[in-house]
Amino acid sequence: MLKKVHLRLTLLGTGVTGGILILTTLIYLFVWENNLWKNRFQTFQSDMNNVVSSLENTTVISGTYLSSLEAGGRYLVYLEDNGTPFLYGNIVENEERQDKQALLTEVKDYYEDHFDDMPKGLIFAYHTEFIYEKRTGLLSKDKFYVCAAILSKEQGQLSLFIISPQSSYQKQLIWQWLFFALINLLAILVLYLFFHQLTGYALRPVKESTEKQERFIASASHELRTPLSVMLSCAALIPSEDKKEQKRLCDIIENEGGVMKRLLNEMLLSASLSVSQITLEKEESEADTLLLNCVEAFEPMANEKGLTLSALLPEESIPPLYCDKHKIEQVLSILLHNAISYTERGGSITASLSYHKSGKRHFVFSVADTGIGILDQDKKQIFERFYRSDESRSEKEHFGLGLSIAKEIVEGHKGSIKVKDTPGGGSTFIMELI
Ligand code: ADP
User: Fold this and answer.
1) Ligand 1 binding pocket mutation candidate from 350, 386, 389 (most atoms within 8 A of CB)
2) Which of its termini does the chain have fewer beta carbons within 10 Å around, N or C?
3) Ligand 1 centroid to residue 363 C-alpha, Å
4) Over 70: is that where the pLDDT of 123 sits?
5) Is 128 helix (H, G, I), strand (E, B) or coil?
6) pLDDT-based confidence at 12, cuts 50/70/90?
7) Contacts of 320 (CB under 8 A, 6+ apart)
C-alpha cells in the first residue's frame, strides 16, 4: 500500500516537473529555430541583393564570379541571356551536381509556368517540396531558398535563378533536437531518482507509524488470545462438570475476563495516546501534594508485600507545576506499581521530588526501588509497547504497556522519562517536567 503511494508520488512529481521541463525545452527550441530560419532567409536576401546589383551594373558577366558564388555548395546559379542558357566555369559533373542542376531547371520551369509574364524585379521564396528530395534521397521536405529575377540589360533580358539548399542546417537542427531529447531524458531520470528519495524521506514517519501500528495489533491480538482461549476451554468444560468444578471454572472465566478488561483498557489508552496528539487538561497543581497522594494510595499495597514506601519532598515551598494533574498521577502510579511489583519482600521504595531553578526542566520526580533491577540492554526497550523482561512475562498483572503509556504522557508535557540503576541495586525512574 505504502509502496504504491510512494511510486505514485514519485511518478507524479517526476511527471509534473518533467512535463514542465519538456514544455520549456520545446518552446525554447521552437523560438530558436524560428529565429535561425528568419536570420538565414534575411542573409540570403541580402546576399542576393548584392548579386543582382552587381549583375545589373556589369556589362560583361564573368564566369569566375558565378563559379565563386557556387563554391562550397552554398548557391546554385542558372542564367539565361535572352533565352540562351549561360554556361560558365569548370562544371564538375557528378551525381549531386546533376541532381541540383535538375532541381534548378525544375525551379525555373515552375516559375515560368506560374508567371506567364515574370514580374520585373526580384522574387524571394523558400520551398520545401520539389522533386529535389526524391532525387537526392535526402531528408524529406528539404528546404531551399529561391531567388528569381529578370533583369533588363541594354542587350536584352537576363533571367536569373539562384537556389540555396538548406539541408545541412536542417541536419544540424535534427542533431540539436536529438541532443536536447537526450538531455531531457537524463534530467527526467535524475528527477525520478530525486523524487523517489524525497517522497521516501517524507513518507518515512508514515511508514514508521504504520509499522508501529502493525506491531501493536500483532502484539495486542497475541496478548488477548491467551485469556480468551482459557475462557473458551473453561466454558466448554462447564456443562459436563459437577457443581463444585463448575464454580471453579466460572471463577477462572471471571478472573480471565478481568485480565482481558484491564488489558483492553490499557490498550485503548495506549492506542489513543499515540494515534492522536494527547489532549491535556493543564492546570496549576501542587507537585508535592500530587506525589504524596500517589504514595499514600500505594501504601497498603507496599505494606502487604512487606516493603518500605517513603516520600522525599523539597523542604522549601516550590512554585506550582502546570500540568494535567490526572495524567501525571497516572504516570506516578505506573512507576510506583512497577516498583512494588519488581521489588522483593523487605526492600524499600523512595518516591522523591526536587525543584531546580536553573536548567530546562525544573521539576524532577523519581521513584527508586531496591528491586530486581533492569539489564542495560532492556533499559531502552522497556518504554516500548508490550515489552516485558523475561522475569515479568508470566505475570498476569503486567502487559508491558505501563511504561509506554507513561512515556507518551510525559512527552505530551514536553518532559522526559528515563531509568537508571539505583546505587546498591534496583531501578530508579526519573521524570523531568518543565
Ligand atoms: P508491565 O506492565 O509489564 O510492568 P511496563 O511497561 O510498566 O509493563 O514495564 C515494562 C517492563 O519493564 C516490565 O515488564 C519489567 O520487565 C520492566 N520494569 C518496569 N519497572 C521496573 C522496575 N521498577 N524494576 C524492574 N523492572 C521493571
Assistant:
1) 389
2) N
3) 23
4) no
5) coil
6) very high
7) 284, 285, 286, 287
Angstrom distance (rounded) from CA 314 to CA 408: 27
Q: Show the cell assigned to 427.
A: 531501578
Q: Retrieve residue 318's grid coordinates.
A: 516550590
- Expressed in angstroms and rounded, the spacing between residue 276 Cα and the centre of ligand 1 is 25
Per-residue pLDDT band for 138 (boundaries 50, 70, 90) equals: very low
> Which residues touch 74 (CB under 8 Å, ≥6 apart)?
164
- Rounded to whole angstroms, the Cα distance separating 5 from 158 reads 75
Within 8 A by CB and 6+ apart from 86, the residues are 61, 66, 79, 80
| 8 A C-beta contact, residue 206 and residue 2 | yes
Residues in the chain: 434
Cα–Cα distance list, 216 to 211, 219, 267, 334, 410 (Å): 8, 5, 9, 20, 20
What is the percent of the chain with per-residue pLDDT over 90, rounded to a whole number? Answer: 32
Which pLDDT tens digit goes with each residue over 50-68?
Answer: 888 888 788 777 878 888 8
How far is the centre of ligand 1, averaged over its atoms, from the C-alpha of 338 (Å)?
A: 6
Ligand 1 atom showing the smallest separation from residue 393 Cα: 14
Contacts 24+ apart (CB under 8 A), 198-205: 198/13, 199/6, 199/9, 199/10, 199/13, 200/6, 202/9, 203/2, 203/5, 203/6, 203/9
Residue 137: what pLDDT?
A: 42
Query: What spacing in Å lies between the alpha carbon of 382 and ligand 1's midpoint?
Result: 6
Strand-pair partners of 300: none
How many other CB atoms are there within 10 angstroms of residue 3's CB atom? 9
Task: Indicate yes or no: pTM above 0.70.
Answer: no
Pocket probe for ligand 1: among 349, 382, 390, the residue whose CB has the most ligand atoms within 8 Å is 382
Average pLDDT over residues 220-248: 83
User: Within 13 Å, how many C-alpha atoms sit on residue 191's CB side?
Assistant: 19
Residues 6+ apart with CB under 8 A from 359: none
Residue 363 has pLDDT above 90, yes or no: yes
Nearest partner of 406 among 353, 303, 331, judged by Cα: 331
Residue 102, all three cell numbers: 535538375
Question: What pLDDT is stored for residue 101 in this prediction?
Answer: 67
Percent of the chain with pLDDT over 70: 83
